[in-house]
Amino acid sequence: MTDLNTIITMFAGLNPSNDPHGSMDKVFCDQCRDFVARAGTPETPLTLEEWKALRESGDYDAAFRRDILDAESPEVFLFVLRDRLVHTAGSTDFVISAISGFIDSIIDPRTVTRKEV
Q1: Could you tell me the sign of the dihedral formed by the alpha carbons of 88, 27, 20, 9, in that order?
Q2: How many degrees, rounded to 5, is the angle at CA 49 between CA 84 and CA 67?
Q3: Across the chain, what does the average pLDDT equal?
Q4: Nearest to 80 by CA among 57, 39, 49
Q5: How many helices (H) and strands (E) does the chain have?
Q6: Given this model, what pLDDT does residue 1 score?
Q7: For residue 16, what pLDDT is reported?
């Protein structure tokens, strides 16, 4: 299986010319690049459980204030990224489908829980 950081790096390069009509908005490409570059343990890790609680609360302001770069793992980063892309229309459907292809085998999108391996 391909390393998810490699996948995230590929997403970072989807809009090299910062085209407003590109495959993914610049801000999300930048977040992909910054997440891989950060490669450390954040002070306040964003866990899958926390993201699930934010989703279920319906408080989108709180969810969007949470820094995606604090994701505890590449899996959580991609899951949160996909949610943000869907809610902001920040990418093409193809990008969202591609992320789903990588992440849905790891995290159940309906229950927001990790699948047993």
Answers
A1: negative
A2: 40
A3: 92
A4: 49
A5: 6, 2
A6: 47
A7: 86
Backbone angles phi, psi at 15, to 5 degrees: -135, 65
CA 31 – CA 28 distance, rounded (Å): 5
Give the sign of the dihedral formed by CA 70, CA 76, CA 82, CA 86: negative
Amino acid at 78: L
- In angstroms, rounded to a whole number, what is the distance separating the alpha carbons of residues 48 and 52? 6
CA 95 – CA 32 distance, rounded (Å): 13
Q: Which of 28, 79, 69 is nearest to 49 (CA)?
A: 79
Q: How long is the chain?
A: 117
Q: For 6-31, what is each residue's pLDDT tens digit?
A: 999 999 999 988 888 889 999 999 99
Nearest to 26 by CA among 80, 88, 94: 88
Do 80 and 71 form a contact (C-beta atoms < 8 A)?
Answer: yes
Nearest Cα residue to 10 out of 26, 31, 27, 33: 33
Write the CA distances from 114 to 36, 42, 43, 63, 90, integer angstroms: 21, 21, 23, 20, 25
